[in-house]
Amino acid sequence: MPRLLPLSAALLLSANAFAQAPATAPAAAGSTPISLEQAMADPDWIGPPVEQAWWAWDGNSAQYELKREGETIRDTWQAGINGGTPVKVDDAARAQLDGARPVYDASRTRMAFARNGDIFVRDLRNGALTQVTRTGEQESRPQWSTAGSLVFRAGNEWFQWRAGQGSSQAAIVKAEKDPAIEPKPDDLRDRQLRLIDTLASDRAKREAEREQEAAWRAADPTRAPLPAYLGEDVEIIDSALSPDAKWLLVVTEAKDANAGQAGKMPKYVTESGYEEFEEVRVRVGHNAPLPHRLWLVEVATAEVDELQLHALPGIETDPLAALREQAELESLKGDRAVRVESEGGGSPAIHWRADGSSAAVLLRAVDNKDRWIATVSPQAGQVDAAALAVRHRLHDDAWINWNYNDFGWTADGALWLLSEQSGYSHLYIADGQGTPRALTSGQWEASSPVLGADGRTFFFVCNRDWPGDYEVCAVDRDGGGVREVTALDGVEGFVLSPDGSKLLVSHSDSYLPTQLAVVDTRGEETALLTDTRSAEFKARQWIQPEIVQIPSSDGAGTIWGKYYGPATMEPGREYPVVMFVHGAGYLQNVHDRYPVYFREQMFHNLLVQHGYVVLDLDYRASEGYGRDWRTAIYRQMGTPELQDYLDGLAWIGANKQGDVDRAGIYGGSYGGFMTFMALFKAPGAFKAGAALRPVTDWSQYNHEYTSNILNTPEVDPEAYLKSSPIEYAAGLQDNLLIAHGMMDNNVFYKDSVMLAQKLIELRKDDWELASYPLERHGFVHPDSWYDEYRRIFELFEDNLK
Length: 801
Fold this sequence. Notes:
Blueprint: H1 15-18, H2 36-39, E1 53-55, E2 61-67, E3 74-80, E4 87-88, E5 103-104, E6 110-115, E7 118-123, E8 129-131, E9 139-144, E10 150-154, E11 157-162, E12 166-174, H3 187-195, H4 197-219, E13 227-229, E14 234-241, E15 247-254, E16 263-267, E17 276-280, E18 293-298, E19 303-307, H5 321-326, E20 338-339, E21 350-352, E22 359-365, E23 370-376, E24 389-395, E25 407-409, E26 415-419, E27 426-430, E28 437-438, E29 446-451, E30 457-462, E31 471-476, E32 483-484, E33 491-496, E34 502-509, E35 512-520, E36 526-528, H6 535-539, E37 546-551, E38 558-564, E39 575-581, H7 598-609, E40 613-617, H8 627-631, H9 640-655, E41 658-668, H10 670-681, E42 688-692, H11 703-710, H12 717-723, E43 735-741, H13 749-761, E44 767-772, H14 782-800
Helix pairs in contact: 3-4
């Protein structure tokens, strides 16, 4: 079991060393109640969380970023792992900083990283720093070859660097017509060339010059590589160069394709004094993301071939065939559209082996019912013979998760991947061409895997003890038991040290924003590096949320929750109830980490101070509970989640002296949507509700999120009727507050305006709409936060007391 060193140990910094950002006010008495003004104030008074962290090259210190008080500037700090006070890196020393997400060469003696859009190489034997690029471009994605050269990208252009030789462009690909391709037969042109000798002679000379130039260029190693041409009807979306710079995979989509009608969002309070309009996203079903094409380029010859996707198993099957028929639509003809992308485009969808012999590619059906991982192993001079070999297929009748799709290679060429195929995200590995075998299993989630420096040990984040308890775990690639390396409860992520012996762990707790700790990979010693909270915030006595388990009335299992209540309950007293609904749908809020909703957590403290009890649930569709919990809302958003809240209300009445006849509910985004569903579909269950930045009609939301869960309005109109609150607005009989930022480019302010008009037409009373002209989806101004939560508090005081 990991051991936390005593406070006097050398590796543990003193409490005085923790204060890296100056306290914003004198320490307050522990009994000071939280006020609404303080809870909704600029969070600088709490102290800045650690935002990004990485190792210094020698493994003796950590470097990380903190927001500067009162500004948006992020300063870089450094903390030694052997003690001492963390210090802010001064301007003169910034040129020697290392960078986040470094990659290591085969011998792990050099690391490469991107910093400020440039590429650097650090020699780990002596600390020498080499700046590879110094440009105005944003270079990224460095990768070492087994031979020790480095490739990296700038946009969709790729470069190669060798020690002592500098860097040069390694591949050129153009979305243009190949000038060497003969034009299509044309009688008029052919007649001109036949009749006019001068035209024919000039043309022949141009062709000879072009052919000679191409031959010289191919034979001269000092020249830039030959350009490869993909045609003028495509647009380059992504690319990945093999580390040996011999092969390039290119992702394209159709050029100038119809992307659908974008919205026009008005902005009323502007610097110009005039109304201004911002173009915003397309609505669901008005046009789906464009399909991708995948091309293989042999760099030396500039030969190009399109990799065919016909062999992807299941690509020809339409998972929505029955719904199309029911909607009297034509059946899908041919293969389904496919995109080359991973987690919302955030992580690379193409990974090359270090020796350049093979690449692994993640492909998703546009309907997101299938995800494939395929490999390609090209041979020199045989571009047109290369083909994709499917290594893993994941199908879901609902939708493939946005998360848990990491994959990559081991040094010896084994393919590893995450998959939800068992119902929970777990780690798999495939040796050779074999079927992937599971390294982890159980009713818990594995995420963010990293292969250790030994090439054998995988480290990853796990929640084995209970769904909200996150640690770093480890498992050998040959299998065996999973061990927990950390005992911090609220692990958010980690970075392996350059020598592979330690982990720099980001962790947090209910009232502890993200901090850093160092844990050795054996899990035997832990050193806490930072505590950036202000003295005032640390001095306060906060209500520690009680983690509770509520049985689901429809047999779905346990609903996990956070309960906030007084330390001592008055015998015989029944307390008014407030229930909180987190946003994002697929998000977890019942855990041992610092919540995204830290302001709401302070507000829950305030509510308890004023005589309420509060319950916050991870309803169905929340993250961390496996596939079935996630997909329970498929084609019925707002139905199982509402049942979870009704079960939670009954539970708090039976177990925590909650007065179920005096209950309120509130939340933002998805939480606002659920507040509507609670008030409209279960009138009387909640006497008051506050819907913040809420979705009222899912046909107004985006395609990427909504079509996964409800398909499209054309194909599945019943799902939209069942899931959109505006369809149930006639059920409102309780008190409703709607609050929405007018510059919200995620859930449009239009949603709330539409519902307001519907409520007017229904002649409903006891509702109000609060509008915030300078706020987007996430509020940023303390005045707006205060005004919004003042209204929520008054709503509950007026109707639940």
